[in-house]
Amino acid sequence: MTALDLNSDLGEGFGVWRLGDDDALLDVVTSANVACGFHAGDAPTMRAVCTAAAARGVAVGAQVSYRDLAGFGRRFIDVEPERLADEVLYQIGALEAFARAAGTRVSYVKPHGALYNATVHHDAQAKAVVDGVRAFGDLPVLGLPGSRLLAAAGSAGVEEAFADRGYTPEGTLVPRGTPEALLTDTAAVVDRALRLAQAGEIVAIDGTVLALPARSLCLHGDTPGAVDHARAVRQALVGAGVELTPFAL
User: Fold this and answer.
1) What is the DSSP secondary-structure string of the chain?
2) Parallel, antiparallel, or unpaired for β 201-203 and 209-211?
3) Which of 54, 91, 118, 80 is nearest to 246 (CA)?
4) Which long-range contacts does 207-210 make (Cβ < 8 Å, 24+ apart)?
5) pLDDT attached to residue 16
6) Beta-bridge mates of residue 184
């Protein structure tokens, strides 16, 4: 591929609590998945990230979640589809207010954590997320290749890959909390990114080679060495002639 988007989860602080280095990552990525207050994020944080992203020309995306501050959105919730759709719409609308105040707009939507993983196979919740997005407007939806989410999104679906997460042979993410869920070595993260960009492939934890022509590559902001990983990935991709550009603006 000649062009690739780099996205990262940002704005995941709350009150006096901070997670990750938003400013450093905004100097690296081309798209920011901004927490909308349900798993993390609050009004000042949302506004600050939108303002900083707009100043750098970074696309702003709504990172929607279950209503789960205590669990950081990493616990499955069997919420009714109609309510889930409304809560997705609510979160996008909240972020859009801060994006407009910063002179930009919400350009896409990406589910967070347990909601992201649920929409890989859960038809009702995948449709509910897409219904919430469509109630707001015609926005791209970022998700895992082969997921029910992207099937529900149709032409609005955008495939992404993960530079620092382990993959199962089936192409899903290794659950967090298991030994091979995260890649923590910078060289391994860089190799993953280059192979994806140059060959459209990712290697699963058992050695299976997965064809994965993703348009966006996620670099998590809360993993050990996240900023170093991100800077090294950006430098390697630029050095390989890959154009780094948002998939949506």
Assistant:
1) --EEEEEEEE---BTTB--S-HHHHHTT-SEEEEE-SSSS--HHHHHHHHHHHHHHTPEEEEEE--S-TTTTT-S-----HHHHHHHHHHHHHHHHHHHHHTT--EEEEEE-HHHHHHHHH-HHHHHHHHHHHHHH-S--EEE-TT-HHHHHHGGGEEEEEESSB-B-TTSSBPPTTSTTSB---HHHHHHHHHHHHHHSEEE-TTS-EEE---SEEE--SSSTTHHHHHHHHHHHHHHTTPEE--S--
2) antiparallel
3) 54
4) 208/169, 210/167, 210/169, 210/171
5) 82
6) none
What residues contact 210, with CB distance under 8 A and at least 6 apart? Answer: 167, 169, 171, 201, 202, 203, 204
pLDDT tens, 85-95? 999 999 999 99
pLDDT score of 173: 95
Which one, of 83, 156, 171, lies nearest residue 121 by Cα? Answer: 171
* Residue 66 contacts residue 39 (beta carbons within 8 Å): yes
The model's pTM is 0.95
